Amino acid sequence: MLLQAETCEDGMPSFFDPKTVAALFDGNPAAVAVLDHDLRYTYVNPALERLNGLAAASHIGRTFAQVLPDLHGQAAALHDVLADGKPREETIHGQTWAAAEAEQRFWRATYHRLDVDGEGCGLMAIVVEITDIARQREELEQARGHVALLSTAAVRIGTTLDMDTTCQELADFVVPAFADVAAVDVFPPEVGHSVRRPAPGVVRLRRAALRGDGELDEQVQRFGHPGEYVDFAADSAVTRCLAENEAVLDDWEDHERGRSVRTSGRIAASRALGLRQALVVPLTARSRPLGTLSLARAEGAPAFSDQDVAVARELAVRAGVDLDHARRYDHEHSIARELQRSLLSEPRGPHPHVEIATRYLPADRGVLVGGDWFDVVPLPDGRHLKAMGDVMGHGVEAAVAMSQYRSLLRLLAGEDLPPHRILEQLDTMVERSGLDRAATCLLAVVDRFGGVCEVASAGHLPPVFIDPGDAGARVVPVPVGPPLGTGFGGYRTASVPCGPGTVLFMYTDGLVERRGEDIDVSVRRLASLTLPRGGHLEDLLDQVLDRFGEDAEDDIAVLASRIREGPPVLRPTPAE
Questions:
Q1: Contact status, residue 204 vs residue 231, Cβ threshold 8 Å
Q2: Chain-wide mean pLDDT for the chain?
Q3: Element holding 206 (H helix, E strand)
Q4: Omega into 176 within 30° of 0, i.e. cis?
Q5: Rounded distance between C-alpha atoms, residue 111 and residue 45, angstroms
Q6: Is residue 284 a contact partner of residue 320, using CB atoms and an 8 Å limit?
Q7: For a 10 Å CB count at each end of the chain, is N or C smaller?
Q8: Most confident range, picked from 119-128, 327-336, 350-359, 492-501
Q9: Phi and psi of 297, rounded to 5°?
Q10: pLDDT in tens, 88-116
Q11: Rg (CA), the chain
Q12: Beta carbons within 10 angstroms of residue 272's beta carbon
């Protein structure tokens, strides 16, 4: 913008005579100055006097650089405005003669050329001080840091479905970037061992994670190691946070006033470590409390600001979602594991002349429980039925389906049918029941008098027979029909010699299935199994799991049985 007017005797526009200028700008809160073509002050208003710390008389007739030598760099911008007539708006910083607490002061200045007949004869400067720009810049940097922190949290927290791992990831993430100490406390799991009741008014939580910065990491362990239960009194910040479902900022000055002995003692111990303040935020998901995240800062660190509280709440919200997923998984996993464990309890020996050994090895905690199962059912005439099965899928549904398959099998076993007929009827019953979980199954009926084992398979891996002495093991291929629950049928029974002392070994695919290897190659490796004459079946299973179970990615179920060796026994005949 160009300001134009007629000329006065001093070369300045006529409307800038002292009386006119004073009337226009003396009461203006912005600092205003008028400079001539040589950048000498011709007018300053009272606001500029206060800003520069000099009276008007100390300005008039002197150049900008003479009055404010610390800001002489602005002279170039003023000359540019005089040269091209284009207004300039700039942020400048430095010091004036006025007293100020800050080492640097900041102003926003606007420069306009004053024209007479199209020629620049001076300029006007309007200056507004930005009093909090340093603080604003600091807050802006802090805000940027908080945004980066929240963005990184998405990939650093909740990398697994393990509850304690997620809690430790949260504690590790906030220390030392956001706090000097962090503790994550959660409510006890709903499934598993029971926890004794706390005293009235006391909240008992399980410490899932604890982290301190540097030496503090070892020192804070006195407040409760991960895995231990910690009691919080009614007046503690943790209890108040859970009761109100709000963040609680707990300054520890004068901590003994109105505090219980338990709370005051914990604060005193924290103060002795150099901690000065705590911030506790709730961990919730789907409106359910999961626990708390407690943050503490040491002496010398800035106190928690309102922005810090907001960031901590947002971190807790995000972590709460991950913890909820982990807790729901853990809940389902525990139920499935308990159900499967109850169903896979060691089967009762079917006959004093038959030895049985079983083992179940769950996969890593990161894998949902599978549907592996086995059973042994006594039959008439000294025979016994052995079953090994694997329900498709994982989790509670697979474990429940496993129990249904086992119940149906026991029902059919009482009808004294050959193995392939049992599979056919089981397949039909499963299809009609609406059970949508297919399963593989291997059935074997051992006749200790006839020295034969009848085997039928519904999509299951072949059995292994380990003969006594030096004969070694045989992986016996048997006719394989479709998995149960498909309704296709088509099962057949194969007869395999199985005299006294021969071990029948059955297993699920978790034992042999390996990524990158053909399963037939893995199964053939079982032919190397050996058991000395009179050796214990439990030793055989130890050998199997040591050799083949270490890298398993799925649950493993194994069963070994053997007819005890002894004098020949005749088949009992029905009474006349």
A1: yes
A2: 82
A3: strand 203-212
A4: yes
A5: 15
A6: yes
A7: C
A8: 492-501
A9: -120, 145
A10: 888 888 778 887 655 677 888 889 888 76
A11: 42
A12: 9
CA distances from 215 to 137, 218, 293, 394, 480 (A): 32, 6, 21, 44, 63
Strand partners, 557: 360
CA pair distance 149, 168, nearest whole angstrom: 17
Task: Quote the DSSP letter at residue 178.
Answer: T
**Confidence at residue 542, expressed as pLDDT on a 0 to 100 scale:** 92
Place of tokens 């190397």: 528
Structure tokens at 142: 């802090």
pLDDT of res. 560: 94
Comparison of pLDDT for 468 and 321, the residue scoring more: 321
CA 251, CA 279: separation in Å to the nearest integer?
Answer: 9
Distance in angstroms (rounded) separating the CA atoms of residues 234 and 201: 5
Classify 298 as helix, strand or coil: strand
Query: What string of DSSP letters covers 496-546?
Result: EE--TTPEEEEE-GGGT--TTS-HHHHHHGGGG----TT--HHHHHHHHHH
Judged by DSSP in three states, 26 sits in coil
DSSP 405: H
Residue 232 is which amino acid? Answer: F
Q: Which amino acid, residue 538?
A: E
Three-class SS state of 571:
coil
Instruction: Decide if pLDDT at 310 tops 90.
Output: no
CA 225 – CA 427 distance, rounded (Å):
52
For the chain, give the number of residues.
Answer: 576
Spatial contact of 4 and 116, defined as CB atoms under 8 Å apart: yes
pLDDT tens, residue by residue, 504-554: 999 999 899 888 788 899 899 999 898 887 789 999 999 999 888 777 777
Q: Taken in order 63, 66, 71, 73, is the CA torsion positive or negative? A: positive
Nearest Cα to Cα of residue 512 among 541, 540, 544, 539 = 544
Report pTM: 0.51
Residues 572, 400: Cα–Cα separation, whole Å: 39
